[in-house]
Amino acid sequence: MGAMTNKKSGDPVPIYLKLQTKLMLEIESGRLEPGDRIPPENRLADHHGVSIGTVKKAILNLANEGYLYRVQGKGTFVAGTTLRRESLRYYRFLKDFNNPEANLNIEFLGLKKTKGIEHVNRCLKIRHNQALYEIKRLFLFNKKPLIYSLSYLPQKLFVKLDDFSPKQFERVPIYLFLEEKYGLPTIYNQELISSVPAAHEITQLLKVPERSPILFIEMIAFTYKKRPYEYRQSYCITGNNKILREY
Amino acid sequence: MGAMTNKKSGDPVPIYLKLQTKLMLEIESGRLEPGDRIPPENRLADHHGVSIGTVKKAILNLANEGYLYRVQGKGTFVAGTTLRRESLRYYRFLKDFNNPEANLNIEFLGLKKTKGIEHVNRCLKIRHNQALYEIKRLFLFNKKPLIYSLSYLPQKLFVKLDDFSPKQFERVPIYLFLEEKYGLPTIYNQELISSVPAAHEITQLLKVPERSPILFIEMIAFTYKKRPYEYRQSYCITGNNKILREY
DNA sequence: GCTCATTTGTTCGTATGTATC
DNA sequence: TGATACATACGAACAAATGAG
User: Considering CB atoms only, which of A97, A123, A194 is closest to B97?
Assistant: First the structure.
């Protein structure tokens, strides 16, 4: 089929780039969904009438940009949150490198509309007067509150977010929910991590003594085209448990 | 010259990666300065006794990471610091998502041999009685001590590590040094993050009041075949600055 | 403006190694 | 163990940009 045209015709667009664009469009349009496996290299090569090296180049570029990820012996998959890398599930709490993980529950505290917040809007790269949604949640590990989290999302991007039932926000991680309902996969995140003494509001919510050391994490989640879509602040107690990160 | 050894010897490190590392070291160490032109592909291929495709791969990777830039017809050049992206393996300190990064210096505090430590050896997946090296360092950002770090490496894996001059440990990031001297590239890391009150020893080293909130990070670095090779504890002050992580 | 040597960019194809199931 | 799929390595040929003469 559609044999990629070659150079002779004065075509300045390289073959690998055409293939790359074609694949990216299939992803962006939703015909290929996160987790889907794309055809193997040799099949793509045959199908498009190009060499395997050219296919490799297109796929590797997309993998570098975060659209795809590859596993030797298994295949090439569409990135997105769910399967992208099991290691990137947001927070994993455990006592020790060799211990099993603690159990997670989410308690939904509220969702409301707010006006733009200067610091938040700048992080989200939107104008200062654009309105936001504010989501408050408590993460319980083994029934004990360990994280208080405050999320901000642009109202413009997530229309009618407040129509969903609160239960939806407790069932699954928020990024999965947003991906499903609004088709925005998470491509990468930025975090700022610091250690701070617990402020008064936090001591109440997390039930810790005033000025206990708290892990404070600010996060920006990005989707395609490096577009930020969520700004989040998390306050974590880390007495016995610690946060595991792999990269 | 220095013909890169090939696979037959059970060597798990790909040739292109060795070349890539070698070039990166020349850049990081300052032997190659921003703007310098590196030898053309065919010369590098001859010089190292590898194919031109392999050289291409090494160079393209470094170009993608921002270490080099290429101009068709002219050559390949060392990029200025602006372009460089060390998103992983490295701590980046800044005050805010929108602020520039602080300046880093490393102060080497000491390297000595120690007996095995149960917790450490378990993390490194070596027997309890295997001896270790212990490296103590202080990271200064804008001249102020911000991180105290304690590294453990198996003596068996890093023979004669204590023969190197202390200066070597201050010049380049430790993982680059180990990669060059022992041919162990870092494939991925695990971290445990928590927030703790400063213990007595730490208050002295980092010059903070007793029980200030400290970011405590335990890290295990893995090389090929998921083999752990370094266990590290870092104690970070995060008053004004925060740690940036991208993933 | 033209030619030529140099250097990178693209494309091809083949062979073998290695991870996964 | 075998089939599948990605990873590495080799090498060849030609296109396109650059800069010098």
Answer: A123
